[in-house]
Each structure stands twice: as C-alpha cells, then as structure tokens.
C-alpha cells in the first residue's frame, strides 16, 4: 500500500483540527455545567469532592470507552485532568459558611504562604478574616479581643513561643495551629488557652489550587464538640480528615517528612559533590529516574529554612538517620562482598514485608511515570 500523499495528510490533519475544536467546545460546556454544580454545592453546603460519585462515574466511563474501542485508561486520564480543573474552578463560587456567628477568624502569620491560603478559604466561605503578623503585635489585644477562631501558622521553631505570647482569648474561641509537628504546639495551646483547642496539619503545600482530595490531619485537644463545625467547613473545602494522636502524628512524620527530605538532601549533595551533569543525566534518564530526580530537584527549589525547620525540629531525626545509615551499611557490605545472592534474599524479604502494597504502589506510580514521560521535552 502506498503512503498517503502530502495532500491526503493535510486533509486528514484538517479533520483532526476540526475534532479538536469540537473537543474545546465540549470542554467549555462541561466547565459551565461544573460552575452550576458548584453554585448548588455552595448553597447546600456540600463538599466539592464527592469520592463515591467520582468513582462511579469513572467506572461507567471506562466501561463505555471499552465498548467503543477507546482505551479505558485514556478516558480516565482525560476525566481526572478535567476534574482537577473543575475542583479549582469551584473555588471561584465560594463555599457555604457553616458557622456565620462564630466571630472573626484571626490568622497569626497570615501573610505567609500557608496563612494566605487559609485566609482565602475562610474569606471564600464568608468569614471575617484578620491578619496578625510579626509587625502587628502592638495591636494583638485589639485584633484578638472578639476572635472566634485563632489560627497559628508560623515557622515551626517559633510556634510554641508565639502561642505563649498570645493574650487571653475569648472563652469560646477555637485555637488551632497548622504546624507539621503536633505534640509541642498542642501542649502549648492547651497550657495557654482554656477554651477549645485542636491541632491541624495540612498535608500539602500552599501552592495547591484546591483542597479536593488533600489530607488534613486532626489531633484533638479540648472540647472537640465545639470545633466540629470547623472540621465540617474543612470537609466542604474538599479535604479528607485523618484523625490521630499528636504522638502518632509526630512518629509518622519522622518517616513521611523528616527522613524523606533528609534523604533527598543527601542525594542532592552527592550529585553536587560528583559534579553531575544534570542535562546529561536527563538525556539518559528513564521515566522513573526522571521522576526521582525531579523530586530531589524540587526540594532545592524551596526555602532552605522551612526544610531545615522540618528536619531539625523533630526530636528523633538524628536517631532515625543513624538507623538509616545502619541499613545503608548493611547493603554496602553485601556489595563489598560481591554477595548478589544475599542481596536478592534481602530484596525478597523486604518485598514480602511490603506485601500487596508493592503492587499497589507499582500501579499508582505507573500513571505518574506516563505523565513524566509525556512532559519530557526534546532538550530534556
């Protein structure tokens, strides 16, 4: 069979362009419908993220796609990307105010990135928001005199100190912090405020476009029933709440944050010491290594003080790092001895420990790798 002529290719490409235009029109219609849904959710106080509805819709679309000869994963990828945009657009509609009589929300450190995000969310929900930042302490009594909620979001190593400096708060005021460690801030809040106290840890950065599918860890302090409305407000914003004790939280954060960031820091330091050519590494990188390198590089695009606070504020980071070095030394010993059988036996033992999670993580990472490969440029 002969190859299509240039004229035939141009004609087919023109038809593809027409289909793309139709897709754009359909996307605009879908976004308009999402806006209508957002308005209804705002009026009824419904969360922007409905996991059961999303799962059922994706399952149905995958089945329909397969029946039409369209790869099911293709339609799921498209829908998930559209839904992410839809969740972000629902922020423009605002959210229902669960407790309109609560009084002003005062955000201590509200000019910071995370403080600004929560300021926006509270304002979108109809609350009066006041900012108490480091240059406003001469007005602290005035700003806090009738506060209904006080949110402390300052650098980790200053959190307890700032809490201790707060003037006496109204009896019914809800005091909370957004710090990534919980035991010390929670103890400070309980000691310095006799009213409702709760520790929150948003498991995301301030650059998220929506709280849909994000996790907020809740560490209860005192008078849980008096801040249930606040937890419901956060659910309406789209977040999923995970309850844990402050001790459980801090222990998990040793591995989830402190050690993970420390390990990335060390690998970045190693690349620098080896004078690695990053351009060349990208040329030779598989999607998995490209993703790993991106996560290391992402660390060094952030604020050094923030990550220093996260790593150094955890009391057990040094012990954890030494334990990690012990495991590294054990693996290095196998390499030094040329003991591949020992390596494979240890590998299998660790795989058994991961169990079904290994398969789950492989499947989840598959989509990330496809995305990383799709985003690869010709020069990188």
From TrEMBL:
<dbReference type="GO" id="GO:0004665">
    <property type="term" value="F:prephenate dehydrogenase (NADP+) activity"/>
</dbReference>
<dbReference type="InterPro" id="IPR036263">
    <property type="entry name" value="Chorismate_II_sf"/>
</dbReference>
<dbReference type="InterPro" id="IPR036979">
    <property type="entry name" value="CM_dom_sf"/>
</dbReference>
<keyword id="KW-0413">Isomerase</keyword>
<dbReference type="GO" id="GO:0004106">
    <property type="term" value="F:chorismate mutase activity"/>
</dbReference>
<keyword id="KW-0028">Amino-acid biosynthesis</keyword>
<dbReference type="InterPro" id="IPR046825">
    <property type="entry name" value="PDH_C"/>
</dbReference>
<feature type="domain" description="Prephenate/arogenate dehydrogenase">
    <location>
        <begin position="103"/>
        <end position="365"/>
    </location>
</feature>
<feature type="domain" description="Chorismate mutase">
    <location>
        <begin position="3"/>
        <end position="94"/>
    </location>
</feature>
<dbReference type="InterPro" id="IPR050812">
    <property type="entry name" value="Preph/Arog_dehydrog"/>
</dbReference>
<comment type="similarity">
    <text>In the C-terminal section; belongs to the prephenate/arogenate dehydrogenase family.</text>
</comment>
<dbReference type="GO" id="GO:0008977">
    <property type="term" value="F:prephenate dehydrogenase (NAD+) activity"/>
</dbReference>
<dbReference type="InterPro" id="IPR003099">
    <property type="entry name" value="Prephen_DH"/>
</dbReference>
<dbReference type="GO" id="GO:0006571">
    <property type="term" value="P:tyrosine biosynthetic process"/>
</dbReference>
<dbReference type="GO" id="GO:0005737">
    <property type="term" value="C:cytoplasm"/>
</dbReference>
<protein>
    <recommendedName>
        <fullName>T-protein</fullName>
    </recommendedName>
</protein>
<dbReference type="InterPro" id="IPR046826">
    <property type="entry name" value="PDH_N"/>
</dbReference>
<dbReference type="InterPro" id="IPR008244">
    <property type="entry name" value="Chor_mut/prephenate_DH_T"/>
</dbReference>
<keyword id="KW-0520">NAD</keyword>
<dbReference type="GO" id="GO:0046417">
    <property type="term" value="P:chorismate metabolic process"/>
</dbReference>
<keyword id="KW-0963">Cytoplasm</keyword>
<keyword id="KW-0827">Tyrosine biosynthesis</keyword>
<comment type="pathway">
    <text>Amino-acid biosynthesis; L-tyrosine biosynthesis; (4-hydroxyphenyl)pyruvate from prephenate (NAD(+) route): step 1/1.</text>
</comment>
<keyword id="KW-0057">Aromatic amino acid biosynthesis</keyword>
<dbReference type="GO" id="GO:0070403">
    <property type="term" value="F:NAD+ binding"/>
</dbReference>
<dbReference type="InterPro" id="IPR002701">
    <property type="entry name" value="CM_II_prokaryot"/>
</dbReference>
<dbReference type="Pfam" id="PF01817">
    <property type="entry name" value="CM_2"/>
</dbReference>
<dbReference type="Pfam" id="PF20463">
    <property type="entry name" value="PDH_C"/>
</dbReference>
<keyword id="KW-0560">Oxidoreductase</keyword>
<dbReference type="Pfam" id="PF02153">
    <property type="entry name" value="PDH_N"/>
</dbReference>
<dbReference type="InterPro" id="IPR011277">
    <property type="entry name" value="CM_T"/>
</dbReference>
<comment type="pathway">
    <text>Metabolic intermediate biosynthesis; prephenate biosynthesis; prephenate from chorismate: step 1/1.</text>
</comment>
<dbReference type="InterPro" id="IPR036291">
    <property type="entry name" value="NAD(P)-bd_dom_sf"/>
</dbReference>
<dbReference type="InterPro" id="IPR008927">
    <property type="entry name" value="6-PGluconate_DH-like_C_sf"/>
</dbReference>
<keyword id="KW-0511">Multifunctional enzyme</keyword>
């Amino acid at each position: 069979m002969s190859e299509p002529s240039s004229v035939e290719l141009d004609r087919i490409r023109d038809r593809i362009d027409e289909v793309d235009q139709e897709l754009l029109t359909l996307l605009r219609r879908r976004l308009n419908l999402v806006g209508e849904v957002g308005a209804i959710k705002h009026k009824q106080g419904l969360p922007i993220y409905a996991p059961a509805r999303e799962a059922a819709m994706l399952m149905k679309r995958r089945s329909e796609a397969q029946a039409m000869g369209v790869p099911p994963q293709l339609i799921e990828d498209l829908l998930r990307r559209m839904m992410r945009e839809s969740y972000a657009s629902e922020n423009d509609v605002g959210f229902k105010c669960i407790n309109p009589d609560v009084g002003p929300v005062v955000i201590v450190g509200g000019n910071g990135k995370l403080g600004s995000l929560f300021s926006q969310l509270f304002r979108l929900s109809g609350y009066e928001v006041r900012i108490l930042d480091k240059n406003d302490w001469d007005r602290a009594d005035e700003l806090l005199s009738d506060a209904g909620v006080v949110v402390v979001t300052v650098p980790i190593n200053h959190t307890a100190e700032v809490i201790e400096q707060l003037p006496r708060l109204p009896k019914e005021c809800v005091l909370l912090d957004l710090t990534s460690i919980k035991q010390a801030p929670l103890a400070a809040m309980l000691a310095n405020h006799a009213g409702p106290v709760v520790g929150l840890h948003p498991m995301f950065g301030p650059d998220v476009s929506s709280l849909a599918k994000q996790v907020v860890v809740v560490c209860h302090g005192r008078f849980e029933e008096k801040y249930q409305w606040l937890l419901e407000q956060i659910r309406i914003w789209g977040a999923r709440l995970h309850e844990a004790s402050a001790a459980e939280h801090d222990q998990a954060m040793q591995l989830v944050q402190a050690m993970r960031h420390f390990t990335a820091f060390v690998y970045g330091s190693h690349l620098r010491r080896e004078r690695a050519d990053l351009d060349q590494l990208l040329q030779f990188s598989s999607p998995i290594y490209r993703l790993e390198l991106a996560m290391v590089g992402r660390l060094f695009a952030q604020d050094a003080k923030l990550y220093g606070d996260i790593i150094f504020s955890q009391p057990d980071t040094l012990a954890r790092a030494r334990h990690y070095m012990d495991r590294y030394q054990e693996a290095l010993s196998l390499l030094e001895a040329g003991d591949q059988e020992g390596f494979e036996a240890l590998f299998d033992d660790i795989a058994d420990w991961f169990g079904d999670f290994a398969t789950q993580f492989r499947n989840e990472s598959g989509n990330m790798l496809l995305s990383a490969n799709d985003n690869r440029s010709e020069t990188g």
